[in-house]
Specification:
Length: about 290
Amino acid sequence: MNQNSEPLTNDAGDRGGKSLVLGLLRQFRVGVVLSILTVLFLLVLFWQTILVYHHAGEQGVYWSRFFGGTSSRVLGEGAHLKLPWDEIYIYDIRLTAIRETTMLLTKDGMEMNIDWSVRFRPIPEKLPFLHQRIGPDYAQKVVVPGIISSLRQILGNYTAEEIYAYDEQALLSEMEALINRHFGAYPVIIKNLLIIKIKLPDKMADGIVDKLLYKQQMLAYDFRLKAAELEKQRLAIEALGIQKFEEISKISILKWRGIDATVQMAKSPNSKIVVIGTNSQSLPLLLNTDK
């Protein structure tokens, strides 16, 4: 009897436990459903705050509100999860271009407007340092002021006329050397600084152009004077040669050239008659007999 009653007791216990669970579920089913719906609602509500996407050319820096602040790990492209109260700051690591116009003073105190552009990008592995020390708006905090400072240091050493006539490539090389030294302490790479246009006051620009044109005219005049001097020397040497020729040959250069011209014409296949002059001072005469 005892052996047969034990399985019955176990079955009764199992049925009793299941009934208890089912009873609890029936009793708290409203609460369970509400909890699930609440969790789903919170996921939908905070979905954009817990999932961040990085597109091509973008990298991010993780900032934790309660666990250490800025992380040293750089987040690459793709999707990244975060806590709702934390932040992921996105940086574009591709080359970015800025173009601005800046008013500068030259060495002689003249105002000039410099239209310039520069391309730059952050160093990807140093994004946490860049974020801690400068921030996402590093272009306006560091790049633009650094370029303007370099332009003022370089162009401030020259007068307006010197800048107008200076070799552009040499001027850019000087600026780039200063910029590289200036940005050596920042995790930013500067590339391709270009001076697009330099605008001086109209009267100043016209005066410089007139002066440069006059200078070129003077150089051309000096060149013509030197050419005339060389031509003078050539003619003097030629005259000395003719004088020596006449002294040695006892024949005037005019007669010699007349004889030479007659010989050249006599070689022509056309019919002609050569009449020799009556005296030593006469030149030969050619008569063409063709009708």
